[in-house]
Amino acid sequence: MRKARTGASKTEKPRRSAPKAEKPQRSSAGEEKRRLPRWRLILTLLSLLGFCVFFAPVFGGILNVANLAAMTGFLLLAAVFRFWPGFLRLLRWLWARRWGKLLLVTVGVGSSALLLTVLVLFCLVASKLRAEPQAGCPTLIVLGCQVRGQTPSLLLSYRIQAAADYLAANPSAVAVLSGGRGDGEDISEAECMLRSLTAKGIDPGRLYLEDRSSSTQENLSFSKALMEREGLSGPVVVVSNDFHIYRALRMAEDIGLEAQGLAAKSKYRFSTPTYMLREALALVAYTLTK
Known about the structure:
alpha/beta
């Protein structure tokens, strides 16, 4: 008769415990797919920075076609870099169709030509931001700018101050003050400049008013006609804000004026890129229409 076992055998191996269930790990491939490559992240952030540069002037009340176009362009760029694979799929889909090829080539060539032109003009505008004339020029032409009621705007006050400084340093020089009366202006821009300059101690006998013009081109053309009537000699010094000098000098040259630039300050330094882009676009329009 078998004896019942009362305990485990000395040689019996201990039972292994069941392995603990491991937590499922996230797919590293999925994470890589969701994570933006570094180059796309950098280009997306740079595009958003460009948007901010042209959006900042809005807080100073500056909103025009230049910063609207720039903000739209930088937002589109940010979207393209953020959703790059989808953008490539769209390009391939268009390229597979005859009309899509024509569209892509037209848009690509046209936008590249426009971008290159604006970039070159942007650099030309920048080249005159610190323009200073030689001493002893006999005649200034001070270009008008917005007047609020009877008070000069900040941009116009900078032009007035630059003209006053030059006239004070060159006592034999005279100035043609050019600018008509626009909407919201109680007096002409020329009259506003006359009052401000005489208040700064400039003899009114040295100041000539041209109060019919309503654009930069008219400023210069009408001022030239006044100089011829009054027997004023050149070369002339064109006084305007820094971003405006290159276009003003280009127009002066086109009507036969020998001119140098005197760059006054801009409204805010952070608004300079917006003003410069606006000038580049204005130069494109001037070149196409002159």
